[in-house]
Amino acid sequence: MPRRFLHRHQPSAPAARWIKAGLGTAIAFLAIWLLGEATRASLIVAPFGASAVLLFGVPDSPLSQPANVIGGHAIAAAVALLTDHLLPAGPLNLAGTVGGVIALLGLMRLTHPPAGATALVVMLTHPHWSFLAAPVIVGSLILVLVAIVTHRLPPRHVYPLPLPDHARPKKPRVAEWAAKEEAAGAAATGTEAVPVEVERSVT
Questions:
Q1: Which domain holds residue 51?
Q2: Domain contains 165
Q3: pLDDT 10s digits, 112-166
Q4: Same domain for 191 and 120
Q5: How far apart are CA 33 and CA 170, in angstroms?
Q6: Rounded to an integer, what distance in angstroms lies between the CA atom of residue 165 and that of residue 170?
Q7: What does the pLDDT look like over 59-85, one tens digit per residue?
Q8: How many domains does the chain fold into?
Q9: In this structure, what DSSP letter does residue 111 have?
Q10: Is residue 74, in this structure, part of any structural domain at all?
Q11: Does residue 7 lie within any of the structural domains?
């Protein structure tokens, strides 16, 4: 039984992958800090540290994709700001908000674990409405942009993940379009449709 708690289920990976993840994380937070200094805005919050683990360490996870990172943090912050400003403060509000955010993100297929911490930060610190724009949206956007650039360096990773086949827009086939046109013309004239062969032009 104790071995189940001690066993490392995480598969091994080349050292270069994790060194690059560490460097990418350092560059991302340096960029966020410099932008914050230039704009005199606080752009770093604790949940971004957990986001960096996913973005730079596990880029092929659905939970690490741009929609989940930016959307997850933004929705969590927006919901928490609403409940924090509009509902009475207390443990029930805090617990219900964090739980509601987790359920909502799951239903929207935008689950990003650090976003739960973003909601918790809002409920504990009671920030201004501007917290949604900066640091949440600006900071998470910088993390994603740095991750996109970092994963194009060796050892390379495909990030963001490509669209699955069912999500790609379908282009009409020329042959099917021609066959439908022929069938429509035949129906209009009362003649029998003849199969149409589409010749490909050779350039």
A1: 14-150
A2: no
A3: 999 999 999 999 999 999 999 999 999 999 999 999 999 999 999 999 999 988 8
A4: no
A5: 43
A6: 9
A7: 999 999 999 999 999 999 999 999 999
A8: 2
A9: -
A10: yes
A11: no
